[in-house]
User: Fold this.
Amino acid sequence: MSSTNGGKAKKFDWELITPRISIQNHEGRVHEYELTEIFEIINWLKDKFSDQWFPLANNVELMSNGTEKDGLGTAILNSKPNDITHAQGASYLGVVLQEIGIFEWNHAKRGIEWKIVNPPKTISELQQMLTGKNG
Assistant:
């Protein structure tokens, strides 16, 4: 079992169901991310931020009106434009990527940020990382 990093931490479970990961919180909401999509999100963040910290950036209102700053939520939104609900899963996906060693968390409950510390070089490598730490 995992839990989000925020002050109102939410518990969730995740599993690799190749070719995607499925995340389910304890209210029953499910977020699914294809491995190719996750790989593209990581690379987008790597291109934008290199090894610097980036924010969660998944405010519904700001994403809806196109004013949210670049970060994990906007990276997800870029992969599926107009799917705000999908991008809202950033708080879960970020923790999964943190748990498998790709992201490092700043340990803030507010102002959550991560940085990429161990990016996978291929989708196959990403899958191996996820297999080793199935939530």
